[in-house]
UniProtKB/TrEMBL annotation:
Designated name of the protein: BED-type domain-containing protein
Lineage top rank: taxon: Eukaryota
Length: 66
């Protein structure tokens, strides 16, 4: 089995996605309104897209008005 290539956080994500910063390491994004770490290792930035569609995130984002 060849090793899977891991997706890393890119600085452009903080511009592309509201409320997103670099996470605890290069393989995580941090969601500010949810105070959550989003793992990017398997599906990359798609994980952020999916996270931002969750009702939890939508609620949290609404509270801090971003
Ligand atoms: Zn969130």
């Amino acid at each position: 089995m060849p090793p899977k290539r891991k997706s890393e956080y890119k600085p452009e994500y903080s511009k592309k996605f509201q409320g997103i910063r670099k996470g605890k390491d290069t393989f995580h994004a941090h969601c500010i309104p949810c105070n959550d770490e989003i793992s990017l290792t398997s599906i990359g930035k798609h994980a952020i897209t999916l996270h931002q569609k969750t009702s939890k995130h939508i609620q949290n984002a609404r509270v801090i008005n971003i």
